[in-house]
Amino acid sequence: MKLSQRGRYGVLALQDLANEYGTGPVALKSIAERQDISENYLEQLMGTLKKAGFVNSIRGAQGGYILAKEPVDISIGEIIVAMEGPIAFADCMQMDGDAPYVCAKAASCSRRDVWDKIGARINEVLNSITLEEIREKPGK
Q1: pLDDT above 60 (res 95)
Q2: How far apart are CA 115 and CA 39, in angstroms?
Q3: Domain residue spans in the chain?
Q4: CA distance 30 to 98
Q5: For residue range 59-76, what is the model confidence (pLDDT) as tens digits?
Q6: Mean pLDDT within 103-110
């Protein structure tokens, strides 16, 4: 299992906003420069993050982006799911729209429970880590 660039950059962008939390709007250009992400690509990501309810945009000369929630209230798992969709360890465990994908061999598959347990643990870990935990604290 490998996290895509989209998922990684989504986490990076929100971590950057968490680092600046409470200081006011952060310009997209500033985030792009600090995180070495294309400004155009970052703008697309911010649209997804805004739609998911993680960021708010402020228009105007002093505008930019701010977190819509406190860093402690946003988990890494939530960000990754918003950027990439539900996390599944194996293809047969993924969703097909709103319904679970069901492999033709699902009823007799002895591995399905293993993949389910691994996926559940991965989700558990990702959902237990918040932006607050990974933000850069002043003076460290």
Answers
A1: no
A2: 37
A3: 5-134
A4: 37
A5: 988 899 999 999 999 999
A6: 73
Q: Tell the burial category of 55 from Cβ atoms under 10 Å away from its Cβ (0-12, 13-18, 19+).
A: buried
Residue whose structure tokens are 């598959």:
109
The domain made up of 5-134 has a fold known as Arc Repressor Mutant, subunit A (1.10.10)
Q: pTM of the entire structure?
A: 0.85
**Which residue carries 């500033």 as its tokens?**
30
How crowded is residue 81: how many other Cβ atoms within 10 Å of its Cβ?
17
Only one residue has tokens 């995180």, namely 35
Query: What is d(CA 125, CA 12) in angstroms, rounded to the nearest whole number?
Result: 18
Q: Which pair of structure tokens corresponds to residue 80? A: 């990754």
User: Model confidence at 99, in pLDDT bands (50, 70, 90)?
Assistant: low
Cα separation values, 136 from 17, 18, 37, Å: 11, 8, 19
The tokens describing 130, both together, are 């918040």
